[in-house]
Design a protein that fits this description.
Elements (H helix, E strand, L loop, with lengths): L6 H10 L3 H13 L3 H6 L5 E2 L4 E2 L13 E2 L2 H10 L15 H15 L5 H14 L4 H7 L7 H5 L5 H11 L6
Antiparallel strand pairs: 1-2, 2-3
Length: about 180
């Protein structure tokens, strides 16, 4: 079975990241469940900072997106990073997957634990489950949209309801 990093491993990698861009990307990945491509394609227009809501507009024929959120730890890192962004590129991190993955690999090697964006996505799903979030809502945060009749037509997947569930979970990286 796939294994995700421990919370201690996630904390250690987060603490080792000094560059505000990569610290923000790491915390957003850990607390939102975004894929690395979604993280790199995320634009400033995809973020509602007041609600700490992300609405990725990823173009893919095979992967879906919906709405997800990030916690106050990621919001704090994002505020520190925003002044460093360059004009002319609306992407939040102004980078592609390769440099992002390379940086995460380097910090993993420094700390001595392997943590990738994909592993953070698994960590997010596991942590949300540990916090009591139903799998169908975790699927929604991770871009897997409802497929059953019940989920499609009778359950509330509105951004307001998803935010309420997310906030109740209280997912944390730093504790």
């Amino acid at each position: 079975p796939p294994c995700e990093p421990s919370t201690g491993d996630v904390r250690a990698c987060s603490a080792a990241l000094e560059n505000p861009k990569y610290k923000t990307a790491f915390r957003l990945a850990a607390t939102s469940g975004l894929r690395s491509s979604e993280l790199c394609q995320l634009t400033m227009d995809d973020i509602n900072e007041d609600k700490r809501m992300l609405v990725p507009d990823k173009e893919s024929s095979t992967k879906g997106t919906w709405v997800t959120f990030y916690n106050d730890e990621a919001a704090e890192a994002f505020e520190a990073f925003k002044p460093e962004r360059k004009d002319g590129d609306d992407r939040v991190f102004q980078t592609s997957k390769q440099p992002l993955n390379r940086k995460f690999r380097h910090v993993s090697e420094e700390v001595g634990v392997k943590v990738t964006v994909q592993m953070l996505r698994r960590w997010f799903a596991t942590e949300m489950s540990r916090c009591g979030v139903d799998a169908k809502y975790i699927d929604a945060y991770c871009g897997r949209t409802p497929s059953s009749v019940l989920e499609k037509h009778y359950l509330d997947y509105s951004p307001e309801r998803l935010k309420e569930i997310y906030d109740e979970a209280g997912i944390r990286v730093l504790r």
